[in-house]
UniProtKB/TrEMBL annotation, chain B:
Record SMART domains: AAA
Entries under InterPro entries matching the protein: AAA+_ATPase, ABC_AA/LPS_Transport, ABC_transporter-like_ATP-bd, ABC_transporter-like_CS, BCA_ABC_TP_C, P-loop_NTPase
Species of provenance: Paenibacillus profundus
Protein name (Swiss-Prot/TrEMBL): ABC transporter ATP-binding protein
Molecular functions (GO terms): ATP binding
UniProt cross-references to SUPFAM superfamilies, sorted A to Z: P-loop containing nucleoside triphosphate hydrolases
Presence of keyword Protein biosynthesis: no
C-alpha cells in the first residue's frame, strides 16, 4: 500500500513537471531557448531508448545511432521526395520505426545468443556500415553534405514544434514506463541482475533481449525523425559515434534504469552543449566540449555512481527500508513483551 | 505412511546413464548412473569436492556432460537448455546463493511465480495487474519465514535470509522435481527446524520428488527414502538408508566415525 501511495506522489510530480514544461513558451519565448528545450525533449527520447538497453536489460550498444539515423533519413527523404504534408510526416515516422524494428531484430538475432560484447561490436559494425551507405548513396542522401527538405507548414512554428516534441517525449515516457513495468519488463530487470538465474526460472533469455533491442530501436527512430524535423536538414552526422556517445552520457549521468533519469541527463548535456558553445565565443577551448563531458562524466561516476536520479532513488529506498525495519523491530519487540507478560 | 512401491521403469522421474564431465583433465563426475523414483525423497551425500553440485549442474542443464545422458519423465533432456528443463517441471536451488540482488525480496519470488503461471511474453499489462502473483509470492515467503522482509532489496539480506529466499524461489516454481543443494547451509541453528519443516511438508504432500544434497546426516536419515553416495565423482552406492549405513565400502571410504554417531543419534 505504501507502494501505491508512492506511485501516486510520483504521478503528481510528473504532472507538475510536464505542466511546467508546457508553460515555458509563455514564460520565455526567446527563439534560442525554445530550440534548446525542443532538443532536450528529442534527446530525452533517444536517451530513454538507450536506457531500455543499458539500464533495464544490461545490454551495451556502440551503434545505437543507427536507429536514430534511420528515422532521420527516412523522414528527410520522404518529406523531400513525396510531399511536405502531415500525412507524409506520420507515414515517414512509421516507416522509420518499421525499418528500425526489422534491423534491430536482425542484429539481435545474430548476436544476442552469444556473449554480450558481440552485440556491442555488431551494432558498431552496422552503424559504421550505414554511415558509409549514407555517404556513398549520393542520389538518395547527397553524401556527406546532406540536404535540406521542406516540412509541413504548421511545423514551421517554433512553439508548435516544441509542443510536438514535448508531447512525443511525454507519450514515449509513459509507453516505455508501461513496458518496463509489464511482465516482460520485469524479466528484463531480472536479466540485468542475473541472467543465468533468470534462465533457470524458465525464461528464454534471447527472446527478451531481442524484444528490448527492438523496442529501443523503434523509440530511437522516432527521436531521429523529430530531430531532423527541427533542423529541416539531414546529413551523415546522425550516424556518427557522437550520437551514440551522447545517449550513453545522458543515460549514465541521469541514472541507468530510471527513464526519468534519461530526461534529466538529456537536459544537462544539452544545456551544457549550449552553454559551452556560448563560452566558445570567449575562448576556443570551450569548443572541445568532449573534454568537458569527459570531466562531467568522471565527476558523476565518482560522486553518484548510480547517476543523479538513480542516487536519489537509492537514498530514498534506503530511508524507506530503514523505516520499515524500525517499525518491524517495534512490532517484534511488542510481541516479545506480550509473550513474556 | 510410506510403503515402498515395486520398482518399475516408468516410476523413474529421473535417470542418468554414464553421466561424465571433465574440466580439462579433472573428471568431476564420472560414469554416474542414477535413478530417482517418482514422488520419493533421495539424498546425495559425499565429502567436499565429491562432485555433488557438479552433478546437479548436469541435471539442470547449467553444464553439458562430456558423455552420458539425462532422462527426465521418460524423455532424453541432455540437449535441452536450463529454461526448457524448468518448463518440463525440474527446479533447483543453488548452493552459492543466486538471487537478483537489486530487486526486492518480493520481486525475486514474484518472478518465479510469473514464470510458473506461464506469463512470459506479455509486454503491455502493467505488472501491478498481476496482484495475485504477489499474493502467491507472499505465501511462499511466509512459508520460509521471510514474510517480514518483502520490501527489502535482496542484497541487503543476511546470508541465512538469502538462503531462505533461494528456497522460496524454488518452491514458487512448484516443480515436480526439486533439486536442493544444501538448503540449510548458513541458516542459523534456531531456524533450521522451520526450514526442515518446509521441506518435510513438500515431501509429505506426496506429489513431488526431492533430491537433496546435504552434509547433515541426521537430516538425511530423517527424510530420505534412499541415499546415493558420491565419492571422487563416482557413484559409490545407492540404496535404502539402512543399507547405505551398513555398506562396508561406504563406511571405509567415507563415513567412518561420523557415520556411527549419526546412527546412534538416529536410533534414539
Ligand atoms: N566449472 C568448473 N571448472 C573446473 N572445475 C570445477 C568446476 N566446477 C567444479 N569443479 C571441480 O569439480 C569438483 C567437484 O566440485 P563440486 O562443487 O561438484 O563438489 P561438491 O560435492 O558439491 O562439494 P561441496 O560439498 O563442497 O559443495 C571440485 O574439485 C571442483 O573444484
Ligand atoms: Mg556443492
Amino acid at each position: 500500500m505504501s507502494g501505491m501511495r508512492t506511485s501516486k506522489i510520483g504521478t503528481i510530480w510528473f504532472v507538475i513537471f510536464v505542466a511546467g514544461l508546457a508553460a515555458l513558451p509563455f514564460i520565455n519565448d526567446s527563439r534560442s531557448f525554445l530550440i534548446l528545450m525542443t532538443q532536450i525533449c528529442i534527446f530525452a527520447v533517444f536517451a530513454m531508448s538507450y536506457d531500455i538497453l543499458l539500464g533495464f536489460t544490461g545490454i551495451v550498444s556502440f551503434g545505437h545511432c543507427m536507429f536514430f539515423g534511420i528515422g532521420a533519413y527516412t523522414s528527410g527523404v520522404m518529406l523531400d521526395r513525396l510531399d511536405a504534408s502531415i500525412g507524409t510526416l506520420l507515414l515517414s515516422v512509421l516507416v522509420g520505426v518499421l525499418l528500425s524494428a526489422l534491423l534491430s531484430y536482425i542484429v539481435g538475432m545474430l548476436s544476442l545468443r552469444l556473449k554480450s560484447h558481440f552485440y556491442a561490436m555488431l551494432t558498431l559494425a552496422f552503424s559504421g556500415l550505414l554511415l558509409v551507405l549514407a555517404e556513398k548513396w549520393r542520389s538518395l542522401t547527397n553524401g556527406n553534405d546532406g540536404f535540406t527538405f521542406p516540412i509541413p507548414s504548421v511545423m514551421k512554428d517554433r512553439t508548435v514544434l516544441y509542443f510536438t516534441a514535448l508531447a512525443v517525449m511525454v507519450v514515449m515516457f509513459l509507453l516505455l514506463r508501461r513496458f518496463t513495468q509489464s511482465p516482460v519488463g520485469r524479466v528484463l530487470l531480472a536479466i540485468r541482475e542475473n541472467e543465468q538465474r533468470t534462465e533457470s526460472l524458465g525464461y528464454e533469455i534471447v527472446h527478451y533481449k531481442v524484444f528490448a533491442t527492438v523496442v529501443a530501436g523503434m523509440a530511437a527512430s522516432i527521436s531521429g525523425s523529430l530531430y531532423v524535423l527541427t533542423l529541416r536538414f539531414v546529413n551523415t552526422t546522425v550516424f556518427g559515434m557522437d550520437m551514440t556517445l551522447n545517449a550513453l552520457l545522458m543515460t549514465i549521468i541521469g541514472g541507468v534504469g530510471t527513464l526519468f533519469g534519461a530526461i534529466i541527463g538529456a537536459s544537462i548535456i544539452e544545456w551544457a552543449h549550449h552553454g559551452l558553445s556560448e563560452l566558445a565565443k570567449f575562448h576556443p577551448i570551450f569548443e572541445r566540449w568532449i573534454i568537458f563531458f569527459g570531466l562531467l562524466y568522471i565527476v558523476v561516476v565518482l560522486l553518484f555512481p548510480a547517476g543523479i536520479v538513480g542516487t536519489l532513488r537509492l537514498w530514498w529506498l534506503k530511508r524507506r527500508g530503514r523505516r520499515l525495519e524500525q517499525s518491524l523491530q517495534a512490532d517484534s519487540n511488542a510481541i516479545r513483551k506480550e509473550g513474556a507478560g | 505412511m510410506s510403503g515402498r512401491r515395486t520398482d518399475q521403469a516408468d516410476d523413474m522421474i529421473l535417470e542418468t546413464e554414464g553421466l561424465t564431465i571433465a574440466f580439462g583433465g579433472h573428471v568431476a563426475v564420472q560414469e554416474v548412473s542414477l535413478k530417482v523414483e517418482r514422488n520419493r525423497f533421495k539424498s546425495i551425500i559425499g565429502p567436499n569436492g565429491a562432485g555433488k553440485t557438479t552433478l546437479f549442474n548436469l541435471l539442470s542443464g547449467q553444464l553439458r556432460p562430456t558423455a552420458g545422458y539425462v532422462r527426465f519423465k521418460g524423455k532424453d533432456i541432455t540437449p535441452l537448455a536450463p529454461f526448457q528443463r524448468t518448463r518440463l517441471g525440474m527446479g533447483r536451488s543453488f548452493q552459492i546463493t543466486n538471487v537478483f540482488p537489486n530487486l526486492t525480496v518480493l520481486e525475486n519470488v514474484r518472478l518465479a511465480v510469473q514464470s510458473q503461471q506461464g506469463v512470459r511474453l506479455n509486454w503491455y499489462a502493467s505488472a501491478k495487474a498481476y496482484r495475485r502473483f504477489e499474493e502467491e509470492a507472499k505465501h511462499w515467503l511466509d512459508m520460509v519465514l521471510l514474510g517480514n522482509r518483502i520490501g527489502v532489496m535482496a542484497n541487503y539480506l543476511a546470508h541465512g535470509e538469502k538462503r531462505k529466499l533461494e528456497l522460496a524461489m524454488l518452491l514458487a516454481l512448484q516443480p515436480d522435481l526439486l533439486l536442493l543443494d544444501e538448503p540449510t547451509a548458513g541458516i542459523s541453528i534456531e531456524e533450521v527446524p522451520a526450514i526442515l519443516e518446509v521441506i518435510r511438508k513438500v515431501k509429505e504432500a506426496g506429489n513431488r520428488t526431492i533430491v537433496l544434497i546435504e552434509h547433515k546426516m541426521d537430516m538425511v536419515l530423517d527424510l530420505s527414502d534412499s541415499i546415493a553416495v558420491l565419492f571422487n565423482g563416482k557413484l559409490l552406492a545407492d540404496g535404502r538408508p539402512e543399507d547405505i549405513m551398513n555398506n562396508e565400502t561406504v563406511q571405509a571410504a567415507y563415513l567412518g566415525g561420523l557415520y556411527d554417531d549419526a546412527v546412534a543419534s538416529a536410533g534414539d
